[in-house]
Predict the structure.
Amino acid sequence: MAKQTNAISPTRQEDFPEWYQQVVRAADLAENSEVRGCMVIKPWGYGLWERIQAQLDVMFKATGHKNAYFPLLIPLSYLEKEAEHAEGFATECAVVTHHRLEVQTGEDGKTKMIPAGKLTEPLVIRPTSETIIGAAFSRWVESYRDLPLLINQWANVMRWEMRPRLFLRTAEFLWQEGHTVHETDGEAWEETEKILGIYEKFAREHLAIPVITGEKTENERFPGAERTLCIEAMVQDCKAIQAGTSHFLGQNFSKASDISFAGRDGSKQFGWTTSWGVSTRLVGTLIMAHGDDDGAMMPPRVAPTQVVILPITPREETREEVLNAADALAGELQQQDYCGELIRVEVDKREMQGGAKNWEWIKKGVPLRMEIGPRDMEKGTVAVARRDMPPREKQFLARDEVITGTGNILGEIQQSLLARATALRESNTRNIDSMDDLVEYFTPLNPEKPEIHGGFALCHWAGSNEDEEKITKDHKVTIRCIPNGREFIEEGKCILTGKPSSQRVIFAKGY
């Protein structure tokens, strides 16, 4: 039987969208459900989300935020209070109009379930929770002494996506959404920037994904927001993914929901609010940023299991001894620290061929695979294989060295993934100074492979909203953000209008 060269077909270069779907399936992360556009997140995929959730939750709480939970169903009249917000989500809303089912029997004897009990007011399944949370905040806030109010919730939301893709765009998905109220606009803006900093740090240090922080243009802002900040990631097909957003809402929602308070001088004032969130889209971003043609590749910081131990039991008479040795190794590793947490270890004792078992964990992307068998026990060694190295490359390390050095190896893997992703972005980012060059940059090199195109184009821009919309329509590229950082500040001329421009923006194709 020929040796397996890689686990995924097609490769990333041949068909990136199909490659992505294959990786999600091969890594056993999720599958499509019977409900169109919805997904079943399987244990390995949900374990990854649990790590993301737990680590972000610590970061939020460290800055004073507390968790709460708000209703899934929102009265339609609440959405109508903020017109721009309601209009922005109108085409994605799922609406509940009845509150019970009745059984009817047809002439053929078959029974049917018929919606009955029509609601006096339709209820929208939350696409986001600004309006329902605003109603609660209006009851909670009475005085400036109640501020700032810093609340986060972990929840599911529904947006009726027409073109779903696992983790990236699904009708129902998981996320966190933070909502805060402040006494002044300056405090609210400081909160908006602070959360953006948390998202950037988490993406870089935990997901090993370098992101560019910046501000959305007016066309791309969150509906109802005065300003929207974002983190933008580049994945391996050189497209952009919006990986997180933080919105300065001004007083738009507080006036619509009457989030008012008695100010320091006794006068009635309206709160200044923010909202911000990341979702299970981070899982898709991680796969697209780090996966290879053998499957997923998990950054150690968020991997559900960081080390898997594969006992090698060629003979029944040594099986129990090997399994005991594997358990002992796992027990000692689980007492070791990596980035402030105990190392997460699993011993795979399933009775199946070693090669098939090994490939399963390669496809799942577990950072470290360790093998121990009778010969290793005799020599006092452990075979160690890193997921960021070729699948058949392994080191034979002394057992004591494995115990004390695994944390360092995990750190090396984390840094290598960040370095690779950074190098990809840097090599596929360039300054573009004319429309002709922009069009050429995003024109596929091969019509048969339309996914192969340029990455991030840094361009001077001083066009109108209508100009921006036309470029998006004609060339399928958007302004991802007006990036932060001195390196983007320089005098120039808009690539479309020739008007003066003081900094470059990022154009890219995106998900």
In short: The chain has a mean pLDDT of 95. Residues 233 and 436 are 25 Å apart (CA to CA). The two ends are 40 Å apart (CA to CA).
